[in-house]
Each structure stands twice: as C-alpha cells, then as structure tokens.
Amino acid sequence: MFSSVRSAAPTLRRAYAAAPKVSAPVALQTLPGKYATAAFTSALTKSAATLSQVESDLTTLAKLIENKDKAAAFLENPTLGSSERAAAIKGLASKIPKINETTLGLLDVLSANGRLTTTSEVIKDFIVLSKAQKGEVEIIVTSAEPLEKSVSDRLERALKGSETAKGKTVKVVNKVNPELLAGIVVDFGDKTIDLSAASKVNKLNGLLTQSV
Description:
The chain has 212 residues and is an alpha+beta fold.
C-alpha cells in the first residue's frame, strides 16, 4: 500500500488502512518496484477491474512519456514546487480518459516524496507485476546486434526452462543496443544479468583506475 512507501497523503493512508491485505505476485526490491507494488496491491485490493483500469492508465502515461508529450515533461523536472507539480499532475490527468483515483494517488505520492523522475521505472515494474499476476513473464534480451534465429531459439528454450519461467507463459523480446559491443543483457522483473562485453570493459577500466 502507498503508506508503505511513506506517503505524504494522509487521505490515501486512511482509505487503504481498512482494506484487506493482498500480495503482489513477485517481490520487487528496487525503490521504483516498491512504489509499483504499493499501487498494484492498492488497485487489486479494490477489484480486478480497478487493477485493469490502472494498468490501462499507466500504459497511456508511458506512451505520453515516450512521445515526449508536453503534459508529461514536468516529470523530469525536479525543481518544480509542490503547487506547480500539483497543477502539472492535473493537466497530465486530463490526457488520460477517466483516470482512476489509484493512478492519481500514485502520482501524488511520487510527487510528495520527490520521486516523479522515477515514473517510467515505476510503470515498467507495475506492468511486470500485472503480467506476473496473469501468469506471464516477459524476458528482455538486449544484444549489440539482432540475434540470429538459431541463437535466439536456443536462448529462448533455456530461459523458458528456468525456475523464473516455471509454470508461466514466457515471452522473450530481443532489443538491440550497439553500445553493448558484444554479448547480451537479460532483464526479467527487477533482475538483470549482464553478460555484455561493455560491462566487462567497464569492470576492467575500474580495476585499472584503482590500481593507478
């Protein structure tokens, strides 16, 4: 619940205090993950329909951020005062048809705690939770170049056989980032396995810097 992330909005705390406790399908340990979990459990406590609506709201918000909509620009500006943030949230809400009060509550809490700059990460973690609730797992494999089909197929079989994917519907997505140089980075939930050449180079540079 939002109070678990030190909400500065007492009305939200009162609203959720008497609600029956529900659990998230997976534990997310990062700070954005904790906010996402608070929003997820708050929505699920109300109803499955509320959870679906909040997911829809956040998906729309993610698109606004991705498309650099002016209404979402304030999320990256940590210098705004509380009244300016409140007005900006109201303007942003007008871009999301019939926005749910839980979605607004999440934005208010992020604003009150000075965490609006993490909104995109919170949304990504919320989607992770929502997919897990449906028995779905999205595993993102980032490589320097598009993976060859034979390599992709082998990797997909290995990932689907992992403990994380056990009993779930797995979707493996290949993204390309030339800065990795070689190797891959595997992301699932809030976990990352970095097997890229860039990571090894960075570690080597760090060791060389320490030894000088």
